[in-house]
Specification:
Blueprint (H helix, E strand, L loop, with lengths): L1 H5 L6 H33 L10 H8 L7 H51 L2 H6 L2 H43 L6 H43 L1 H6 L3 H26 L2 H25 L5 H42 L21 E8 L10 E8 L4 E6 L5 H6 L9 E6 L2 E2 L5 H6 L1 E4 L10 H5 L8 H10 L3 H5 L18 H13 L5 E5 L7 H14 L4 E5 L11 E6 L2 E6 L1 H7 L1 H16 L1
Parallel strand pairs: 3-8, 3-9, 6-7, 7-8
Antiparallel strand pairs: 1-2, 1-4, 4-5, 9-10
Helix pairs in contact: 2-4, 2-6, 2-11, 4-6, 6-7, 6-11, 7-9, 7-10, 7-11, 10-11, 15-17, 19-20
Length: about 600
């Protein structure tokens, strides 16, 4: 998992290298500065010869000529060196922060891009596995968590262990006996961190699941805000939101209240160490086994050691939180699309709109006991207009979604143009099938931009021609900005019927071999519905047209009508034949005619 996720740092690995490289230089200088302070106190102020002190820093100072200086001269020279080293250390720290931010942001960008690209390759079955709210959380909150952990790791994961080791080395060099304090505190801290981490990780996993539920609740409410207001359900939605919000709060507190123990544990350890060192160090000074400057630098090294431990604990805390996010992001990246075209012939083209179903069975979930579609055998010739009628839950939409391979059959095969749909590349197959779904989706942008989804290279004449066939040109031209009218999010600036007609026009622009209208004129009046069907018949004579409808008027002139009942084909025939022999079709027709008479 970690190796796969780290592969998305590609393109930013140079910055990922520069950040720890500058951190190393910063730490070297930062660790040397306290020792220079001890030189100022012991040699510059107390007059102890520099040659009597030990350490590689002393050797370097002597080689630089500091051994010949005494008193105020040594204080000034050493102080100037400390200022220079502090400035260089500051510059290195700032550079490391910049490089880590650059690498972390780039890593996050690549990770989000990879997730979005992977989701685009998902089949409907894959999308059904994750809720939209969950995918949004994974691409935002989870990726941000991983990104922040990566930036922290680039800096602290190098800085903390390096400073810990070097500060301990300097402290031991100053006084070995006083350094024994760390042998007592270290194991206690390690035990505390391991205990907290092992208990906190499952709590954060539960918290992120609550985030998914919370985001899904918000998304549904905002998308359906008009429905909420129309049904006066604001109070219900507020209560529903409050429950979800409270659950998220409770899960967050439950996770955080354990992880925040890390801070007090570390602070107790820090102050206990400092008090112990001051107590024992003062005694060593009285007996002449330690100099005052050495004690002061020793305390500084203790602070550096304990600060490094605190930073390590912060990394530990962040890694516990990030681990849950990594697992969730990895689930998306590692999800294998259920529909693949790796073995398909890239040169194979759809040469006609012929469709054939051979002994087709279909389940949304392979574990389901009963299939959604059972023993479907059906043949449709290119250019035919076919109507599909059936009650709610009769699997009308499921049937047509098998044609462009939005789902794959569980048994049997679907043929388009005389070839199994699995023989085609998905892009080739879906470019030849234009489908207007039950849910009419338009995107933010202008009407023209939305219609160009059907053909991005279409001329304005072609766009208007498609709109005329769909009976959309008249109302579009009535807008002040005409085809440059901004639709707003989801097409909120047009009515339901206008939205349906724009979706049909978009589908027609593809000039497909097969056109599928899934109850796509339900919000259109009967006269307009008739004009649309007549326009398609005249302009697309070679295109196979499949119309799913609730109104018999929309399909009664079709070449044949398929009656579905409970996922099975109940009958196939023309309007006249079905009216004479099929009870389901006859009942629907009579009920609709009676409804007209009552009106």
């Amino acid at each position: 998992m970690f190796r796969k996720l780290l592969s998305y740092a590609k393109g930013y690995r140079f910055y990922s290298f520069l950040a720890p490289a500058t951190i190393v230089l910063e730490v070297l200088l930062e660790v040397a500065i306290p020792f220079l302070m001890s030189v100022i106190i012991d040699s510059g102020i107390n007059g102890i010869p520099l040659s009597q002190k030990d350490g590689f820093v002393v050797d370097m100072l002597i080689k630089m000529g500091f051994g010949e200086k005494q008193g105020l001269d040594l204080v000034v020279a050493t102080g100037a060196l400390m200022i220079i080293m502090a400035c260089i250390s500051l510059a290195c720290g700032a550079s490391a922060a910049f490089f880590a931010a650059k690498a972390g942001m780039g890593f996050g960008k690549n990770l989000r891009g990879a997730m979005f690209a992977k989701i685009q390759d998902f089949s409907f079955s894959n999308v059904d596995k994750f809720s939209t709210g969950s995918l949004i959380t994974r691409m935002t909150t989870d990726v941000n968590m991983i990104q922040n952990a990566y930036m922290m790791a680039l800096r602290m994961l190098i800085r903390s262990p390096l400073m810990f080791v070097m500060a301990i080395g300097m402290a031991i060099g100053i006084n070995k006996r006083l350094s024994l304090v760390f042998l007592i505190v270290g194991p206690l801290l390690a035990f505390a961190l391991i205990f907290v981490g092992s208990k906190a990780h499952p709590r954060f996993e539960r918290m992120f699941k609550k985030y998914d539920k919370f985001n899904t609740s918000i998304q549904e409410n905002l998308i359906s805000i008009r429905v909420v207001k129309a049904f006066v359900r604001s109070k219900h939605e507020k209560e529903k939101f409050q429950i979800s919000n409270d659950e998220l709060k409770a899960a967050s507190i439950f996770a955080e209240k354990l992880i925040i123990l890390n801070g007090p544990i570390m602070m107790v350890a820090v102050y206990a160490c400092i008090l112990s060192i001051l107590w024992f160090g003062t005694k060593l000074i009285f007996v002449g086994e330690m100099q005052l400057g050495d004690l002061m630098s020793f305390i500084t090294y203790v602070q550096q050691i304990l600060m490094s431990l605190m930073m390590i604990s912060m990394i530990f805390v962040m890694s516990v939180m990030a681990k849950a996010s990594m697992k969730r992001v990895y689930e998306v990246l590692n999800e294998a699309p259920t529909i693949k075209d790796d073995t398909a012939d890239s040169n194979l083209q759809v040469n006609s709109g012929d469709i054939e179903f051979k002994n087709v069975f279909f389940k949304y979930n392979e574990a389901a006991e009963e299939p959604v579609l059972s023993n479907i055998n059906l043949s449709i010739k290119s250019g035919e207009t076919v109507g599909i009628l059936g009650g709610t839950g009769s699997a009308k939409s499921s049937l047509v979604q098998l044609i462009p391979r939005l789902y794959d059959v569980s048994e049997g095969e679907v043929l388009v143009g005389g070839r199994n749909v699995k023989d085609y590349k998905l892009n080739t197959l879906r470019d030849s099938v234009s489908m207007v779904l039950q849910s009419n989706v338009l995107f933010s942008g202008t009407i023209e931009e939305n219609l160009r989804w059907g053909n991005e290279n279409a001329t304005m004449e072609e766009i208007r021609e498609a709109a005329k066939i769909a009976c959309a040109d008249d109302f579009v031209m009535s807008f002040p900005d005409q085809y440059n009218t901004d639709l707003g999010q989801g097409g909120v600036n047009v009515s339901g019927g206008q939205k349906q007609r724009l979706c049909i026009a978009r589908a027609l622009l593809k000039n497909p071999k097969i056109l599928i209208l899934d109850d796509s004129t339900s919000a259109v009046d009967t006269a307009t519905d008739g004009k649309i069907r007549e326009g398609m018949k005249n302009s697309l004579p070679e295109t196979t047209k499949i119309i799913i409808a609730q109104r018999i008027n929309s399909i009664q002139h079709a070449d044949k009508i398929i009656v579905l009942d409970d996922g099975k084909i109940d009958d196939i025939g023309t309007h006249e034949k079905l009216l004479s022999r099929n009870e389901i079709y006859k009942d629907v027709y009579i009920s609709q005619q009676e409804g007209k008479m009552e009106q």
